Amino acid sequence: MRVRILLLLVCTGIHLLAAPHAFGQTALPSIQLGVGTSDAPEDVATTIQVILALTILSLAPAILILTTCFTRLLIVFGFLRQALGTHQMPPNQVLIGLTLFLTLFIMRPVLTEIHDGALRPYLDGEITQGEGLAIAQEPIKQFMLRQTREKDLGLFVRIGGAERPANAEELNLSTIVPAFVVSELRIAFQIGFLLYIPFLVIDMVVASVLMSMGMMMLPPVMISLPFKILLFVLTDGWFLIVRSLVGSFS
Predict the structure, then answer these.
(1) ω into 29 cis (within 30 of 0)
(2) Could you tell me if 64 and 99 are in contact, meaning their C-beta atoms sit under 8 angstroms apart?
(3) Of 93, 133, 185, 232, which cross-links 237 as Cys (Cβ 3.0–4.6 Å)?
(4) Does residue 127 contact residue 134 with C-beta atoms inside 8 Å?
(5) Per-residue burial over 28-58, b = 16 or more CB atoms within 10 Å of its CB, e = otherwise
(6) What is the pTM of this model?
Protein backbone atom coordinates (compact mmCIF):
# COMPACT_ATOMS: atom_id res chain seq x y z
CA MET A 1 0.00 0.00 0.00
CA ARG A 2 2.80 2.44 0.91
CA VAL A 3 4.59 1.64 -2.35
CA ARG A 4 1.48 2.46 -4.35
CA ILE A 5 1.03 5.79 -2.55
CA LEU A 6 4.70 6.67 -3.15
CA LEU A 7 4.43 5.85 -6.84
CA LEU A 8 1.25 7.94 -7.08
CA LEU A 9 2.99 10.96 -5.53
CA VAL A 10 5.99 10.61 -7.86
CA CYS A 11 3.78 10.38 -10.93
CA THR A 12 1.80 13.42 -9.77
CA GLY A 13 4.99 15.44 -9.32
CA ILE A 14 6.26 14.48 -12.77
CA HIS A 15 2.94 15.46 -14.28
CA LEU A 16 3.04 18.87 -12.60
CA LEU A 17 6.59 19.51 -13.80
CA ALA A 18 5.73 18.47 -17.32
CA ALA A 19 2.52 20.49 -17.44
CA PRO A 20 2.87 23.66 -15.33
CA HIS A 21 -0.20 25.18 -17.06
CA ALA A 22 -2.36 22.91 -14.90
CA PHE A 23 -2.12 25.51 -12.12
CA GLY A 24 -1.54 28.49 -14.40
CA GLN A 25 1.65 30.10 -15.58
CA THR A 26 3.88 31.20 -12.68
CA ALA A 27 6.68 33.68 -13.28
CA LEU A 28 9.93 32.48 -11.73
CA PRO A 29 12.94 34.74 -11.16
CA SER A 30 16.02 34.10 -13.26
CA ILE A 31 19.65 35.03 -12.74
CA GLN A 32 21.83 36.01 -15.66
CA LEU A 33 25.57 36.54 -15.61
CA GLY A 34 27.45 38.10 -18.45
CA VAL A 35 30.53 40.05 -19.49
CA GLY A 36 29.88 43.37 -21.15
CA THR A 37 31.85 46.38 -22.26
CA SER A 38 32.21 49.74 -20.58
CA ASP A 39 33.79 53.03 -21.58
CA ALA A 40 34.11 54.22 -17.96
CA PRO A 41 37.30 53.19 -16.12
CA GLU A 42 35.39 53.45 -12.84
CA ASP A 43 33.19 50.48 -13.78
CA VAL A 44 36.24 48.33 -14.49
CA ALA A 45 37.87 49.37 -11.20
CA THR A 46 34.68 48.53 -9.28
CA THR A 47 34.50 45.11 -10.92
CA ILE A 48 38.10 44.38 -10.01
CA GLN A 49 37.44 45.42 -6.40
CA VAL A 50 34.46 43.07 -6.21
CA ILE A 51 36.56 40.19 -7.56
CA LEU A 52 39.32 40.94 -5.05
CA ALA A 53 36.79 41.08 -2.21
CA LEU A 54 35.35 37.69 -3.19
CA THR A 55 38.88 36.27 -3.38
CA ILE A 56 39.68 37.55 0.11
CA LEU A 57 36.46 36.05 1.48
CA SER A 58 37.34 32.67 -0.04
CA LEU A 59 40.75 32.85 1.64
CA ALA A 60 39.29 33.94 4.99
CA PRO A 61 39.49 30.43 6.58
CA ALA A 62 43.17 30.14 5.65
CA ILE A 63 43.85 33.63 7.00
CA LEU A 64 42.07 32.76 10.25
CA ILE A 65 44.01 29.52 10.68
CA LEU A 66 47.47 30.76 9.70
CA THR A 67 47.61 34.22 11.29
CA THR A 68 45.91 33.61 14.64
CA CYS A 69 46.19 31.22 17.57
CA PHE A 70 43.70 28.83 15.94
CA THR A 71 46.39 26.36 14.82
CA ARG A 72 47.94 25.81 18.24
CA LEU A 73 44.60 25.43 20.01
CA LEU A 74 43.11 22.94 17.56
CA ILE A 75 46.23 20.75 17.42
CA VAL A 76 46.46 20.61 21.22
CA PHE A 77 42.80 19.64 21.51
CA GLY A 78 43.35 16.95 18.88
CA PHE A 79 46.31 15.54 20.81
CA LEU A 80 44.24 15.59 24.01
CA ARG A 81 41.45 13.56 22.42
CA GLN A 82 43.91 11.01 21.08
CA ALA A 83 45.68 10.76 24.45
CA LEU A 84 42.39 10.12 26.20
CA GLY A 85 41.51 7.49 23.61
CA THR A 86 37.90 8.68 23.32
CA HIS A 87 38.05 8.62 19.50
CA GLN A 88 35.33 11.06 18.37
CA MET A 89 34.47 12.47 21.80
CA PRO A 90 34.26 15.44 21.90
CA PRO A 91 33.10 15.62 18.26
CA ASN A 92 35.00 17.66 15.70
CA GLN A 93 32.27 20.29 15.61
CA VAL A 94 32.59 20.89 19.35
CA LEU A 95 36.38 21.14 19.25
CA ILE A 96 36.36 23.48 16.26
CA GLY A 97 33.66 25.63 17.85
CA LEU A 98 35.54 25.84 21.14
CA THR A 99 38.74 26.65 19.27
CA LEU A 100 37.02 29.38 17.27
CA PHE A 101 35.58 31.14 20.33
CA LEU A 102 38.87 30.86 22.22
CA THR A 103 40.60 32.35 19.18
CA LEU A 104 38.20 35.30 19.18
CA PHE A 105 38.76 35.73 22.93
CA ILE A 106 42.56 35.66 22.64
CA MET A 107 42.65 37.85 19.52
CA ARG A 108 40.18 40.41 20.91
CA PRO A 109 42.85 43.05 21.73
CA VAL A 110 44.33 42.69 18.25
CA LEU A 111 40.91 42.89 16.57
CA THR A 112 39.98 45.91 18.67
CA GLU A 113 43.17 47.68 17.65
CA ILE A 114 42.50 46.93 13.98
CA HIS A 115 38.93 48.18 14.28
CA ASP A 116 39.84 51.41 16.04
CA GLY A 117 42.97 52.19 14.04
CA ALA A 118 42.13 50.99 10.54
CA LEU A 119 38.54 49.90 9.92
CA ARG A 120 36.66 52.76 11.56
CA PRO A 121 38.82 55.55 10.03
CA TYR A 122 38.48 53.90 6.61
CA LEU A 123 34.68 53.68 6.88
CA ASP A 124 34.58 57.31 8.03
CA GLY A 125 36.61 58.33 4.98
CA GLU A 126 39.57 59.57 7.01
CA ILE A 127 42.11 57.25 5.37
CA THR A 128 42.37 55.43 2.07
CA GLN A 129 42.06 51.70 1.53
CA GLY A 130 45.82 51.25 1.15
CA GLU A 131 46.51 53.17 4.35
CA GLY A 132 43.92 51.11 6.19
CA LEU A 133 45.51 47.84 5.07
CA ALA A 134 48.95 49.07 6.10
CA ILE A 135 47.69 50.06 9.55
CA ALA A 136 45.75 46.79 9.98
CA GLN A 137 48.87 44.72 9.27
CA GLU A 138 50.82 46.09 12.21
CA PRO A 139 48.81 44.53 15.10
CA ILE A 140 48.76 41.17 13.32
CA LYS A 141 52.51 41.34 12.69
CA GLN A 142 53.22 42.26 16.31
CA PHE A 143 51.11 39.35 17.56
CA MET A 144 52.80 36.84 15.27
CA LEU A 145 56.29 38.15 16.04
CA ARG A 146 55.73 37.66 19.79
CA GLN A 147 54.99 33.97 19.17
CA THR A 148 57.66 33.30 16.52
CA ARG A 149 61.20 32.15 17.17
CA GLU A 150 64.09 34.10 15.68
CA LYS A 151 65.42 30.82 14.31
CA ASP A 152 62.28 30.31 12.22
CA LEU A 153 62.33 33.90 11.01
CA GLY A 154 65.97 33.57 10.00
CA LEU A 155 65.19 30.38 8.10
CA PHE A 156 62.64 32.03 5.82
CA VAL A 157 64.75 35.15 5.41
CA ARG A 158 67.60 32.97 4.11
CA ILE A 159 65.27 30.91 1.91
CA GLY A 160 63.75 34.06 0.45
CA GLY A 161 67.19 35.43 -0.42
CA ALA A 162 66.33 38.88 0.92
CA GLU A 163 68.69 41.14 2.74
CA ARG A 164 68.77 40.77 6.48
CA PRO A 165 66.53 43.49 7.98
CA ALA A 166 67.64 45.73 10.82
CA ASN A 167 64.79 44.47 13.01
CA ALA A 168 61.89 42.05 12.82
CA GLU A 169 59.35 44.83 12.27
CA GLU A 170 60.77 45.43 8.79
CA LEU A 171 59.84 41.93 7.64
CA ASN A 172 56.81 41.51 5.40
CA LEU A 173 53.90 39.14 6.00
CA SER A 174 55.10 36.67 3.36
CA THR A 175 58.07 35.92 5.63
CA ILE A 176 56.40 36.23 9.03
CA VAL A 177 53.37 34.00 8.36
CA PRO A 178 55.23 30.75 7.47
CA ALA A 179 57.70 31.31 10.31
CA PHE A 180 54.77 31.86 12.68
CA VAL A 181 53.05 28.66 11.52
CA VAL A 182 56.23 26.60 12.02
CA SER A 183 56.66 28.00 15.52
CA GLU A 184 53.02 27.29 16.36
CA LEU A 185 53.33 23.69 15.16
CA ARG A 186 56.45 23.21 17.27
CA ILE A 187 54.79 24.55 20.43
CA ALA A 188 51.59 22.58 19.81
CA PHE A 189 53.51 19.32 19.43
CA GLN A 190 55.47 20.01 22.60
CA ILE A 191 52.25 20.54 24.54
CA GLY A 192 50.76 17.42 22.97
CA PHE A 193 53.77 15.37 24.09
CA LEU A 194 53.36 16.58 27.67
CA LEU A 195 49.65 15.71 27.56
CA TYR A 196 50.41 12.17 26.47
CA ILE A 197 52.69 11.34 29.42
CA PRO A 198 50.14 10.85 32.27
CA PHE A 199 47.73 8.91 30.07
CA LEU A 200 50.57 6.78 28.74
CA VAL A 201 51.54 5.89 32.31
CA ILE A 202 47.98 4.73 32.98
CA ASP A 203 48.02 2.56 29.84
CA MET A 204 51.32 0.98 30.88
CA VAL A 205 50.12 0.26 34.41
CA VAL A 206 46.88 -1.30 33.21
CA ALA A 207 48.69 -3.40 30.58
CA SER A 208 51.19 -4.64 33.20
CA VAL A 209 48.39 -5.60 35.63
CA LEU A 210 46.48 -7.47 32.92
CA MET A 211 49.59 -9.39 31.87
CA SER A 212 50.38 -10.33 35.46
CA MET A 213 46.81 -11.66 35.82
CA GLY A 214 47.11 -13.66 32.61
CA MET A 215 44.38 -11.67 30.87
CA MET A 216 46.39 -11.00 27.73
CA MET A 217 43.39 -11.34 25.42
CA LEU A 218 41.61 -8.41 27.05
CA PRO A 219 42.45 -5.08 25.33
CA PRO A 220 44.11 -2.75 27.89
CA VAL A 221 42.40 0.24 26.29
CA MET A 222 38.99 -0.94 27.47
CA ILE A 223 40.18 -0.96 31.08
CA SER A 224 42.37 2.14 31.01
CA LEU A 225 39.83 4.42 29.31
CA PRO A 226 37.57 4.85 32.39
CA PHE A 227 40.62 5.54 34.57
CA LYS A 228 41.94 8.16 32.14
CA ILE A 229 38.57 9.89 31.99
CA LEU A 230 38.33 9.77 35.79
CA LEU A 231 41.80 11.29 36.16
CA PHE A 232 40.99 14.00 33.66
CA VAL A 233 37.73 14.90 35.40
CA LEU A 234 39.16 14.85 38.94
CA THR A 235 42.00 17.17 37.95
CA ASP A 236 39.58 19.53 36.16
CA GLY A 237 41.49 18.95 32.95
CA TRP A 238 39.55 21.27 30.66
CA PHE A 239 40.02 24.19 33.03
CA LEU A 240 43.76 23.57 33.33
CA ILE A 241 44.32 23.13 29.60
CA VAL A 242 42.28 26.17 28.55
CA ARG A 243 43.95 28.32 31.21
CA SER A 244 47.40 27.19 30.11
CA LEU A 245 46.67 27.71 26.43
CA VAL A 246 45.22 31.18 26.89
CA GLY A 247 48.10 32.12 29.20
CA SER A 248 50.67 30.93 26.67
CA PHE A 249 49.70 33.81 24.33
CA SER A 250 50.05 36.57 26.91
Answers:
(1) no
(2) no
(3) 232
(4) no
(5) eeeeeeeeeeeeeeeeeeeeeeeeeeeeeee
(6) 0.69
